[in-house]
Amino acid sequence: MIEPIGNQYVVARPVYSANAFGEEHKKKHRHHKTFLDRLKLCCSCSTQKAKRIALSLFPIAYWLPAYRLKEWLLSDIVSGISTGLVAVLQGLAFALLVTIPPRYGLYAAFFPVIIYFFLGTSKHISVGPFPVLSMMVGAVVTKVASDASTTMDLSNSTANNESILEQKKLMVATTVTVLSGIIQLALGVLRIGFVVIYLSESLISAFTTAAAVHVLVSQLKFMLQLSVPAFTDPFSLFKVLESVFTQIEKTNIADLVTSLIILFIVFVFKEINQRYKSKLPVPIPIELIMTVIATGVSYGFDFEHRFNVSVVGEMNTGFEPPITPDVQIFQDTIGDSFGIAIVGFAVAFSVASVYSLKYDYPIDGNQELIALGLSNIFTGSFRGFAGSTALSRSGVQESTGGKTQVAGLLSAVIVLIVIVAIAFLLAPLQKSVLAALALGNLKGMLMQFAEIGRLWRKDKYDCLIWIMTFIFAIVLGLGLGLAASVAFQLLTIVFRTQFPKCSTLANIGRSNIYKNKKDYSDMYEPEGVKIFRCPSPIYFANISFFKQKLIDAVGFSPLRILRKRNKALKKIRKLQKKGLLQVTPKGFICTADGLKDSDEELDNNRIEELDQPINTTDLPFQIDWNANLPLNIMVPKISLHSLILDFSAVSFLDVSSMRGLKTILQEFIRINVDVYIVGTDDDFIEKLARCEFFDDEVKDSIFFLTIHDAVLHILMKKDYSASKLNFSQEKDKKFDFTINTNGGLRYREYQVPLETKF
Question: Transmembrane segments in this chain: where (predicted)?
Fold first, then answer.
C-alpha cells in the first residue's frame, strides 16, 4: 500500500498479529458448510458430472471420437506390427525370468494391452512384460515354490514332480500378479497415486540397474545350460554366481556359442538403430530376424537331440482356461506384491510422463493406477504375469510412428495371431536364444552406471542414494532392497533437515536484497544487527542444532550472558546493601571488603534463579552491561542489540521445537537483544497463536514480511540520526514511524524517500 503525503510517500507494510489472525480465522470459517452439506454435494449427480466421471474412467471415450483416420491409421498400423513382433519375443524371453514356461509370456503380452486400450491415458507406452518386474515376480515364485518342493511326494516320478512344481510356480506367479493389480486398483480408486513420489529418479535408476544385474546373472544358467538351485534369501545373487562357477565345466558349448552370437549381433544392430534412427524409416527388427533364423537352424540341424540343448518345447495354440488365485499365497506375498505394484506403476508413469511432455497431452496418475491394476488382474486371471512398460518396446511404438493406443491394440492382434495360430513353430527355439534376447534389452539399464559421475557433480546426496540403492538391491534382493532403499532415501531427507546449512545474511550493494555473507564481496551489515537464516523446517530433531548454529552466528550464548549478568546483579545488590558500592559520574567505586562472602553466596545460588529476566527496578541507578563494572565482577560485553531470524524457508514447526524456540527467544530478549522473525506465512503464525506461544516477553509484534522491513524498523527504533543515512535524493527528509490499526490487521507505516541507501 503506497499513499502520497505531500511530496513524500507512505509505504504501508503489513505486520502479522496473532489477534488479527484469530479474527480473520473466525471470519474464514464462519460460513463453512457442514459435513452433511458436503456429503449431499458429493453424492449429487448432474449430466455434466456424470459425463466428466465417464470420461475420466474411460479415456477412450474422449480421444477415439477425435481420431484422425486418414492421418494416423497408417502410422498406427506400421507401429502396431513392429511393436507386436517385439512384444512376442519379449514375452517369451521375460517368462524365463519368472521361471515359468515361455508360452505364458504371450498371455502377459496380450491381455494388458487390451485393458489399457480402454482405460489408459498415455498414447505412446506399450504395456506388457518388463524385465525388472518379471525378475521381482520370479524371486517370489522361487521363494514360495521352493518351500512347496520340499513337501513333494518322493514316490512320484520325476516328470510328475516337475509338472506339479511347474503348476505351483504358475499359481504363485498369477496370484502375485492379481494381488499387485488389486493393490494398484485400490490406490487408484482411493486417489493416492502420490505414493510414487517417494521413489526418486535416483532410486529408480539405481534399482533398475541392480535389477538388470540380477537379470544378467539369472540368465547365465540358460546360456550355459546349467542346473542352478533356487536362492531367495539375501546374498542370493552371489550364491547363484558361486553355483555357476562351480559347475562351469558342465557348460553346453552349443548353447553358449549360440547365445554369444545372438547377443553380439543384437547389440550391433541396436547400436545401428540408435545411431541412424533419423535415417531409418523403422528400426531394424533384429530380434525377430534372429529368432526366425535361430528357430530354423535349431529345427533343421536338430540341435535338441544332436547337442542336447534346452528348447522352448511344446507351445499349445489357443488360450488356456482362467485360473483362480490362491488366498493362502495372498497372505504369504502381500509385501512383495506391494513392491511389485509400486515399481510397476512408477516405471510406467515415468515413461508416460516423458511422452506426455514431448507431445503435450495430459496424463492422470490415478487413472493410470486403475488401468494398470485392472490389466494385472485380468492378466493374472488368464495365466499371465505382472507387467508395466518396457522402455525398448515403448520406444519402438513411438519411433515407428505410433500416434495413439490403436497401435497398441494392433500389437495385441499380432500377439493374438501367434497365440492361436503359429505358436507351435517356436517349439524348436533354444532357451539360450531367449536369454540372449532378454540380455540384449538390458543395455539401456546397464548404461545407467554413468549416472554416478553425473550425480556426484550435481548432488552428493542423490549420488549416495543411487549407490546405496544399488548395493541394497544387489545384496538383499529386489524386495528387501527396495524397502531398504526407500527407508534410506527418507533418512537422507531427515538428515538434510536435521543438519541444515544455516547462514548469516547481509545487505548487497546497499539495496533491499540480503544474501549469504560468504558469497558476495560488497556487503553491508548494520552495526549491532545480525540476520540469521534457517533453510529447513524446525522440529524436534534439529532444534538443538538450530540453537547451536544460532549461537555460533552471534558469537555468544545468550543463556551464559544472562546467568553472568544475574550473578553480577546479585553481587552489585550485595555490595550496595553493605554500603561498599558508590556510584560516581565515572562509574562504580567499591572496596575489597565483603567480596568473598558475596562470591560464596553466588556459588550457592540455584541455577533456576539465574535464568530469570534481569530486574533492576529496585536499584537507584541503571546498569550499562557493556561498561566497566566493580572490581572482580566480570560480564562479557556484547555489541548485538537486534537479531533477525529469516524463516522464509521454515515450512512447519512442531510442538517440541516450539518450546525450544520460545526459550531461545526469551534468552535473547532477557539480555536486551530484540528478536524479529521474517518471511513466515499465515498458517505458521496462526499455529503459534493457537499453541499460546506469545506472552509478555515474546510478543506477536516481532513478525515482519521481509528482512528489509525489519532492518528499517530497527534503524528507526534505535533513533539513527539522519547524518548516518545517505539519501540519494532529498537529504533533509526524516523517517517518521507510526502504527495504524485497521479492522484487526496491523500496518506499520514508513515515511521514507523512494530510494534510501544505508
Answer: 77-98, 104-120, 170-199, 251-269, 338-357, 369-386, 406-427, 464-495
